[in-house]
Write a structure and sequence with these properties.
This protein has about 170 residues and is of the alpha+beta class. It is built from 7 helices and 5 strands, in the order ααααββααβββα. A 3-stranded antiparallel sheet has the order 3-4-5.
């Protein structure tokens, strides 16, 4: 819940701070990311605070780049290009390249879930996860976990040499 709130706060800040064309496009992507399903043009325009004609212009450009898709009833959702770019980020992260296969092997051997995540703001961004054995723990990639969350926080603060925030 706290991770979603942090994500929502960052999207809100991006929407109000940056009125450039790129800022508005990022705001559209953020609105679609946080939506519970495909959004109408009107809902997108309202979410980012622009006129429907401006939202339509932005969406037209994003459609051409496969950053968004138009689905049933002229609604919009994130497109495959967003995943493709995000996967490039994950693969280029040194910790991911250096440890992923070893984590998969360890998860299989110990019947646990393994995950690779990087700090982003006051959360961890999950780059990938592997569920092995009979574990009930599922960690979706692209998800966010608060920095001070249980064992995640303990490992992070110990590794970073930073004093954890007071409980």
């Amino acid at each position: 819940m706290a991770a979603r709130k942090a994500s929502d706060d960052m999207v809100s800040q991006a929407q109000t701070v940056n009125n450039s064309a790129i800022g508005k496009a990022v705001a559209v992507l953020g609105a679609l990311r946080n939506a519970n399903g495909p959004m109408t043009l009107t809902a997108i325009a309202e979410a980012i605070g622009v006129a429907p004609s401006s939202a339509h212009s932005i969406l037209s450009h994003l459609l051409k780049e496969s950053m968004v898709l138009q689905v049933q009833d002229k609604r919009y959702e994130l497109g495959p290009q967003v995943f493709y770019l995000g996967a490039g980020f994950a693969r280029s992260t040194p910790v991911y390249r250096a440890t992923w296969m070893e984590l998969v092997d360890a998860a299989a051997e110990l019947s646990v879930t393994s995950a690779v995540a990087v700090p982003w703001g006051d959360t961890f961004l999950v780059l990938n996860s592997h569920r092995a054995g009979r574990t009930n723990v599922a960690m979706p990639f692209g998800g966010r976990v608060p920095l001070d969350a249980s064992s995640w926080g303990k490992v992070y603060f110990a590794w970073a040499g930073v004093k954890p925030p007071p409980s």
